[in-house]
């Protein structure tokens, strides 16, 4: 007696189709499982055996062999429990094979037969639809997430008995249809924050606006208490909204990481992540025995805020070089290479010395050697990948005293300009594979960043006198392009280049 059940395996944020082949035959009673199964998958033997016995479908004394095909791909996780159980029951004749044709099964089994939720449902259902599946059986806890994929029928079940009753034809069930849209999550986890709360710091707020409009990486430098963290935590209030495709990408990352809550809807806002400076390299870029997304991937299409940048271990920061450049995080393990998306906006803040008050010599107590060693914690290659650097100096007393009556520019006003610049980029890149100015490569720069004679001379002077590298030259041009977009100018002019030069790295550190 033989059966084949369709399921899915996760690899990064992508899914691979897996055929669960079950053979139940006479012979020495045993339960073998083959097909490059991980430890959690191998443990399914006991979970499935006990769950079937507790729902009144014990496996008779016979030889049961389960193969997870293709056999050259490693399978991890607990989502194979349900397809294995269904395959065994089909091989034993509890229901005809026609009842499972074109259906993908996913879910973990409890010992009492409960079907428990599993991570990564969204990308697995998405792949099932692409492969032509007519239906997907998912845990009840994952029903909202699975229903985000349109064009395929979703059948949620909370217990193995209910699933078996449906497969045997004893009960009928309609595909799941979500009720309403529900409440959308608010930016920054519902925090009521606005740029009007930031007193002064007009130059830093303008740098934040440039960063949001062109998705340029931003570093803020200054003494403690100047408002660096306040500015960073308000970045999400001026960023362009996620497109539908970006919403699916971000939700898929959080699904694979197991960070989607029950009944959660499609993620509407750009993520904001702020890990502590004691974070490990593996937690930052992803890793582990069974690779999981790190913070650079959890910040995909959103903001990764690194406060007290110089307090991070240099080795931890340096692992971000590759994700900053390629916008993906590649994790290599013996079982193969896993790639997670990591197209994030880096916003960082740092002091210039251990006490934080340099260059105020009246308050700074650090020696020149301590200041030099502190700055040296930030490697040149990492800093060279940051587009904008701005000083955040202490706020003048007069501004603080009058802050109740003197409100600065609001997030709504800044967002309006950002969205206008965003629309210009959408029109510019409508036939390209990029969305923001920061994503332009050398070929794109030649096409979209043409300069007049005066602008060329200014860039040549800047390149020679400031000793720019090729990378910093290109980043300077991208920033100038974004400033021109914010000012509704079709061409890059001298004033745009001069403004971009004000936010150079060497002028601030």
Total tally of structural domains: 2
On the 0 to 100 scale, the average pLDDT is 87
The global form is elongated
Spans of at least 5 consecutive residues with low confidence:
181-190
The CATH C-level name of the largest domain is: Alpha Beta
Helix-strand layout with pairing:
Blueprint: E1 2-11, E2 14-25, E3 30-34, H1 39-42, H2 44-54, E4 63-69, H3 81-91, E5 103-105, E6 108-109, E7 115-116, H4 121-130, E8 135-139, H5 143-146, E9 153-157, H6 160-167, H7 202-214, E10 218-221, H8 228-232, H9 244-256, E11 272-273, H10 281-285, E12 286-287, E13 292-293, H11 295-298, E14 303-306, H12 314-318, H13 321-326, E15 328-333, E16 336-341, E17 345-350, H14 368-375, H15 380-383, E18 388-391, H16 397-401, H17 411-428, H18 442-448, H19 453-465, H20 470-486, H21 494-501
Parallel strand pairs: 3-4, 5-8, 8-9, 10-17, 10-18, 11-14, 14-17
Antiparallel strand pairs: 1-2, 2-4, 6-7, 12-13, 15-16
Short description:
This protein has 509 residues and is of the alpha/beta class.
